[in-house]
Amino acid sequence: MAPPAQSHSRSHALLLLQKLLNLRDSASPLTLVLDTLEQSARPVIRDFITRAKVSKSRIIFVSFAALGKPAEADILVKARGKSAEALRSEIVSHYPLSASGHALKVLVIVDALNPIASSAPSQLAHFLSSLITPAVSLVGVYHTDVPLVLPRTFNEYEPHPLTVLSHLATAILRVSSLYQAVECRQARNRSLQEPEWGLKEGREGVLIGLRSKGTTRTENGLVLEMEIRRRSGRSVAEKFVLVSSPEKAGKTELAKLMLLSDHPLFRDSSDAGEDVGGGGGDEGGTTFNLGLTEKQRKDREGIVLPYFDAQTDIGAGEGGRILYEMGREDDFDDEEDEI
Prior knowledge:
The chain is an alpha/beta fold. Helices cover 28% and strands 17% of the residues. It has 2 domains: 4-267, Rossmann fold (3-Layer(aba) Sandwich); 294-338, no CATH class. It has helices spanning 4-21, 42-54, 84-92, 114-119, 124-131, 161-168, 178-189, 269-277, 294-301, 334-338, and strands at 30-35, 58-63, 75-78, 106-110, 136-143, 171-177, 221-229, 235-243, 256-259. The two termini are 54 Å apart. InterPro entries: Elp5 (IPR019519), P-loop_NTPase (IPR027417). One of its GO terms (molecular function) is tRNA binding. Residues 269-294 are annotated as: Disordered.
């Protein structure tokens, strides 16, 4: 059982993630979502959109790669081929104002930051900062394993665009495959080499990843690693499992969230041991029985420990002396006895 302080910290991290996804109290003005070819960030973006729709926020979808507007998005801004300044002006023009003059809550989603990071890396920080206001939350997706071709005018001493994004972001979400995480954990438990997928396989001209295998327990889930920077400067990091719900008649339900350590495929062996000791029938996948039968328990109680007589107090301060009886195989040495 986890200590109370650790349990409180994990519960607090889960509440922070829910607050971030629900866009409450400006939890993160700039959220950076890092994905790969093996695991797309689409389920995370879809959950952002669904929650924003529930809170009646205006959703502006900035498309570099998507061909069409998501069903629940309000405005689609086609960004391909536009300069950073022209794109910024078009996005800001869609910010709504209420009758009282106060800006309504807006969610701006950029489906790919790689094109603008490649075409105008020096303007990346100014472009993102100019989009953020107290009522606007910006979520940007960056594909970490897509090669980034920088212009010739880029100074080699300037920080890499991904470094700039990681520095500016107040929250970073890294997504990875749940199936692959389970396979790696099982390999570590067996002291085997962890398997590789995708580009790390080293195969030329082929990617073997999510679609090669899959189980019903992992096909709709992904591992979500959160790193959120608080206003005090303290960073909170935790790993979660996000299980997206299938769409039903054009209506998308909220994704389910849980801590990675609470997932059935990632529970510690100590938790399984506690279940066995408590009388449960589940052995947690162990190769041996951690419990005792009634006969084994009685036999253990009937065992007389070595030197048991020395544990009784016989008076005159002689308690605790060692009593030793020689066997036939012992060789008694008179000289050692005299010493």
